[in-house]
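Fill in residues.
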């Protein structure tokens, strides 16, 4: 199997898990996971700094799925990467955070694969998302937290250059643009805009442009 064939197999697996879970639940959104599988696969496989064995590594890149209704994208990736579970005390449990059985029970009570990502319920989920456009606020908040942490490390003499990126997938342009303008003005006033290292992926159409990112990495 060639590398390109392996990439396509992984993408199709994300798609298949997503549509089968939605079909089983008789509820959910299959279209967005189908369209964004190439993008999300590329991010997790070639772009993001993330260790599935240590999902709470402080310098990991953060993934924000602002369009939380496409949560099967995240559950599929966490399952396929075998991201490990941690408890409320951030101790490793020695088991996957999302299993195939969780995906089979997508949108069911007590399943670790709910209809929208929920922080602190599943390891690998950086934030709870639902309302479209809220991801930009979370993204900037994660960066501000990282800036504060780096400042603390510098004060303690630790200048290892810790810096993480936040990758946000968003779907609707207008609410996101309004939020970005409001937050940017506030950050400029606070003199913190230079600390940011944001990567945003907007999903506006079905023209196939999402594949360009995968092909360029």
């Amino acid at each position: 199997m060639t590398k390109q064939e392996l990439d396509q197999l992984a993408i199709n697996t994300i798609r298949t898990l997503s549509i089968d879970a939605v079909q089983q639940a008789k509820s959910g959104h299959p279209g967005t996971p189908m369209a964004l599988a190439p993008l999300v696969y590329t991010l997790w496989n070639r772009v993001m700094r993330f260790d599935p064995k240590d999902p709470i590594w402080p310098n990991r890149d953060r993934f924000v799925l602002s369009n939380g209704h496409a949560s099967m994208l995240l559950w599929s990736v966490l399952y396929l990467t075998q991201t490990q579970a941690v408890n409320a005390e951030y101790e490793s449990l020695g088991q996957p955070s999302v299993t195939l059985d969780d995906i089979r029970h997508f949108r069911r009570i007590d399943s670790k694969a709910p209809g929208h990502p929920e922080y602190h319920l599943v390891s690998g989920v950086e934030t709870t998302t639902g309302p479209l456009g809220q991801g930009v606020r979370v993204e900037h908040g994660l960066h501000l937290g990282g800036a504060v942490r780096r400042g603390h490390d510098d004060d303690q003499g630790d200048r290892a250059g810790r810096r993480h990126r936040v990758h946000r997938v968003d779907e609707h342009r207008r609410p996101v643009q309004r939020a970005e303008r409001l937050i940017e003005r506030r950050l400029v006033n606070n003199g913190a805009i230079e600390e940011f290292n944001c990567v945003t992926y907007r999903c506006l159409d079905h023209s196939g442009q999402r594949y360009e990112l995968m092909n360029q990495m």
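The radius of gyration is 18 Å.
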